[in-house]
Here is the input.
Amino acid sequence: MDSNNLLKQLLMIGVGTTSLVADKLRQVSDEWVKDGKLDAEQANSFVNDLMQQMKSEQSNLETQMQRQLRNVLQDLGVPRQNEMDELRGRLDRLERQVRDLENKLWR
Here is the structure.
């Protein structure tokens, strides 16, 4: 499982959803302006405030998703990248030691 790819896909879904919500908000605010419920400045301010709030919440959601994904991967026993790098280094050292021992035996 490529956690980075999964996270990117989830974030792209979030971006797409945010874009749809923004479009719908603008449509609704335009209708309110047309119906005389809000003036254009109020509608623009309303949409901008809501979009700013959504961006802030999306950032928090992204952080929470990353944390949750790390926890799930850890619960599943999937090693972190630094753990894999450490194991590769240990494996390289062991392979080198085995080669050295084999070379000593053949001399």
